[in-house]
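--- STAGE predict ---
source: upstream dedup step, 1 unique chain passed
mode: sequence only
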Amino acid sequence: LAEEFGDNNITLILDLRAPTERNEPKVQIWTRALSWKIVQANEFLAAGATLRHVVCHLNMCDGITHQFRSSRSGGNSESASSFDMMVSLIDQHGLAYLYKLLLRHHDAILLAMKLVALHLQESPQNKILIHCAQGKDRTGIISMLIECVLGCSDEEILNDYTLSEGNVPPVGHLPLSTYVRDSTIFEKSPRSVMSNTLHYLRTEYGSVEGYLNAIRFDATWQHRLQRSVGGFSTHGISARL
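--- STAGE serialize ---
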């Protein structure tokens, strides 16, 4: 596995999963096989995002997993009610509502965007593999934000997102999958979901840039990311990230 990543010049793996997801036995198999150094996102940022051949852990759904843990502990009826309401809204509105929840994780998304900008800026040779559990929800949101900064059109973003359709593995043991009415939503990436997400950002923040400014990934950081991938067409950007 390490050889395969090396052949593709991957220098950073950005892992957006929650700790419980990373601890699954099947995940531990490839983590041990890779034998790269594992670091936390803040540690990686403190090093200037210059480390190479590392797996960087960044929990992008901490608020959701905290609600899940609290509701299942049986010690807080308010948390249980809040969790049940969240599940009900996901049942009603599907992935589009889940994406709204994920976009509220401002600190985690800001950190992910900074790490990407800094690591790519550090060397033109650096390449990043971003992943989560299914590879299209948390990963899809970060990829969409990056593509927006780089000037990709909505059509390009939606086409990239829908590439996952039909290629997503069975849902397995995602924390939410046991509770929602239709767990197969986590195996799909319909065009309408990302289209609705872009519409939400423009309605709530005026633009995707407005959202990024609100989470403090401001114009200076956006220009930094743009410069770090200078010379690459937006059409082929996924090959670099």
